[in-house]
Design goal:
This protein is of the alpha/beta class. Helix 5 links the parallel strand 6 and strand 7. The radius of gyration is 18 Å and the shape is globular. 36% of the residues are buried. The mean pLDDT is 91.
Length: 249
């Protein structure tokens, strides 16, 4: 598969002298669902921001997609409370100079893709936490990116809502052919969602191990209690513990 994103010997030092990433190398293949897993502070979000072009490396090279663009979903929905759901999703297109009339169907398609077409005229205060995150995902998708970067988008949600959004995200990934890079600190979430998991060691962050996850195309409630999922979770958990134990070595 062709590479969509590559980090080559990337290091990142912040202004206060903190070494967040140290010689990190990673390739993201077109069409895959890649999760970055590691303990808090290991540089997962920093790596994601470098992939997005929201920050630049102190050394090394980040290769990004030249066409098709990048969508980014943050930890918080960051919706504008004075705008409707439609208005929030329309915003990135408005910033590109489009009128509502030009892209109304496109915005509604984005809302339809996350199950919120009936809430286009609602305001964020009228939505649940899960619905707000769906709006944020629709906003990231409306520009039709080739790469979707997601920074722990479901971490603050209750388990039932999180499971539902995991299911919906997988369905969206299968339908769209998107390439997704997903940051999480959850072993269970990474094993459920991913086609590949990159386990990072504690700061300074770098790749500790890469795990290919072989899962059925359809994953849901039955898969969550299957032996194959349990085995994957154990494999990922052992890799994470190994990364933590290797800190400082």
């Amino acid at each position: 598969m062709p590479k969509l994103v590559a980090m080559r010997a990337v290091s990142k030092v912040f202004a206060d002298g903190t070494l967040a990433l140290d010689q990190m190398s990673l390739e993201v293949e077109t069409g895959e669902f890649l999760s970055l897993l590691g303990p808090s502070g290991c540089g997962k979000s920093t790596a994601l921001r470098l992939m997005a072009g929201l920050a630049e490396p102190s050394s090394g090279v980040v290769e990004r997609p030249s066409g098709g663009g990048i969508g980014f979903v943050f930890q918080e929905p960051t919706l504008m409370p004075w705008q409707t759901v439609f208005g929030n999703v329309f915003l990135p297109l408005k910033l590109r100079g489009f009128s509502k009339a030009e892209v109304r169907e496109r915005v509604m398609d984005g809302l339809q893709s996350v199950g919120l077409a009936d809430f286009a005229h609602s305001y964020p205060r009228q939505l649940s936490g899960g619905m707000k995150m769906r709006v944020s995902i629709a906003r990231a998708l409306v520009t039709r990116p080739s790469l979707l970067l997601m920074d722990e988008p479901f971490a603050a949600l209750d388990e039932i809502t999180r499971h539902k959004l995991n299911d919906d995200l997988l369905a969206l990934w299968r339908r769209s052919g998107l390439t997704i890079v997903f940051v999480t600190h959850s072993v269970f979430e990474s094993a459920f969602l991913s086609s590949r998991i990159v386990v990072m060691r504690p700061r300074p962050g770098r790749v500790f191990r890469e795990l290919a996850i072989s899962q059925p195309a359809q994953r849901g409630a039955d898969y969550r209690v299957s032996e194959s999922y349990r085995a994957d979770c154990q494999l990922v958990s052992e890799a994470l513990q190994g990364a933590i134990s290797a800190a400082g070595n």
